[in-house]
Write a structure and sequence with these properties.
Layout lengths: L18 H10 L4 H16 L3 H28 L6 H5 L4 H9 L5 H7 L1 H7 L2 H31 L5 H15 L3 H21 L7 H14 L7 H11 L5 H23 L3
Helix pairs in contact: 3-5, 3-8, 3-9, 5-11, 6-10, 8-12, 9-12, 10-11, 10-13, 12-13
Amino acid sequence: MAKKGASANEPQPQEGLTREETKSVKERRRLRAAVVYEIIRLEGEAELARKFSALWWSALAAGISIGFSVLSQAMLEATLEGVPGARMIADFGYCVGFLIVILAHQQLFTENTLTAVLPVMVKKDWNAILDVLRLWAIVLAGNLVGCFLFAAFLAYSGALSPEIAAAVGDISRHMMANTPLEMFVKGIAAGWLIAALVWMLPSSEGTEIFVITLITYIIALGDFTHIVAGSVEAIYMWLIGEESFWRVAGGFFIPTLLATSRAARCSSPW
């Protein structure tokens, strides 16, 4: 017999458990898909309601923070040079910027691409679509300005040792060696993984650091292209004069942006 106040169809813990044990079992059950959806939808609603200044400064901070993915990866590569498996270890540095951005709740374009779409799917009107476009434009612009500032720091500050500066250049050249088609295909993989991360976080209470690290490490290990983190590398190559603006825009930014938007739309189970 179902306990008082419980749904007739809802599975119940077996008899013989204490009240505290029964409560613990219920708290540790996985969230239902509908609950995860509602959590993300409410987050999307909250993002859409934020004012320009709040979105802009948070997005700018995220663009700067994500630069630490490139810098941390370069620092590890420079430190581990000559060590067997150095690249696999150095790829963990790529996770640093994402950990800062996500745990600090800063505005990252790839996350908002998904969360802000869900309220539109519910309302299905032009005002909601315009709200999403406004959010995307502000966040993407803020992210890119932050990426530019960090790339300028890498290129002009003189704060990096020659070894770390060389590693930043190697990482950036490696990414820019991709063709536009490769940027697009790898961008879809990165966008899909970030979208999956968004769906995983509501169920990962207490293990967020592990989940974020796992997903972003896979992005680094697979050489997938992320529209924001990759912008730091692409802008850096432009600032040091090794790539033209049009190569950065047409060879990296446009195909990767299109891939990110495509992946976010396709990854939603709803």
